[in-house]
Amino acid sequence: MNLQQLSQELNLIAKKAGAFIKQEAENFDRSTIEMKGFANMVSYVDKQAEEMLVEDLRKLLPEAGFITEEGTDTTRQDRYNWIIDPLDGTTNFTHGLPLFSVSVGLMENKEIVAGVVYGVMHDECFWAYKGGGAYLNDKKIHVSDITTLEQSLIITGFPYYEETKAKQYLEILHAFMARSHGFRRLGSAALDLAYVAAGRAETFFEYNLQPYDVAAGIILVQEAGGQVSMFGDGDDFIFGKQIIGSNGHIHQQVKDTINEFWK
Ligand code: IPD
Ligand code: CA
Ligand code: CA
């Protein structure tokens, strides 16, 4: 498979879904929001964007299966599977905060080999494929070269369900606050990882994430020269519900700080 060619097509598909989301953002009616759980919203925009993506991706790679947030297609295949979050940052979207993205990763066996994160309102297309580097629109991107936590900007997310780890998480945040340039909580895990890949922040970490939140971002960080891991020793950062993405230089410092409190 020619991953470079596939990526060009993938970018167009993500941008098409993004154009739909942008158009709907202009006159979004909040009464159309449905609740999937406490503070977990979904709208017709998420669902229709996913349907568009699935239809186009089926044509692009007929032998691939799907893992999708809204469940449009749940057929899994052995070798290739698309991992799709049609609208990452739904809470931002519903409040009119312009930070949300379309995120699509292609998994071959258990590895992400291509991915796109399209920042809809800024028209920023972050994309990468295995061995080919990472890009923002048509420019190559690279993680930052900052080597100390003290000079680092950190992005995280606060899970709105799964309360059991909340206390430990707050302790972790407290420790980082005293040792860094501080935190941003942007509200789209896919964009968070893309921003680390582009050198706009040194690290992103969060727990309780799903494969569709991180799949595309993983290859972006890796191909931009950064590092991705779980909080501890495991390497299942696609399905393992916890992730650290960083510029590589500060990765161990981030891991150590998290593990002072994460039990
Ligand atoms: C959410 C965003 C958010 C993260 C949540 C995710 P959604 O995805 O990525 O940044 O903190 O855990 O669920 O629901 O907007 O697709
Ligand atoms: Ca998401
Ligand atoms: Ca979503």
From TrEMBL:
Entries under CDD domains matching the protein: IMPase
One Pfam family in the UniProt entry: Inositol_P
GO MF annotations in UniProt: inositol monophosphate 1-phosphatase activity; metal ion binding
Keywords tagged on the record: Hydrolase, Magnesium, Metal-binding
Class of this enzyme: hydrolase
Residue numbers binding Mg(2+): E69, D85, L87, D88, D213
InterPro entries according to UniProt: IMPase (IPR033942), Inositol_monoP_metal-BS (IPR020583), Inositol_monophosphatase-like (IPR000760), Inositol_monophosphatase_CS (IPR020550), Inositol_monophosphatase_SuhB (IPR022337)
Gene Ontology biological-process annotations: inositol metabolic process; phosphatidylinositol phosphate biosynthetic process; signal transduction
Cofactor(s) essential for the protein: Mg(2+)
Reaction(s) this enzyme catalyzes, per UniProt: a myo-inositol phosphate + H2O = myo-inositol + phosphate
Catalytic activity, EC: 3.1.3.25
PANTHER family tied to this protein: INOSITOL MONOPHOSPHATASE, INOSITOL-1-MONOPHOSPHATASE-RELATED
Family in the record: Belongs to the inositol monophosphatase superfamily.
The name this protein goes by in its record: Inositol-1-monophosphatase
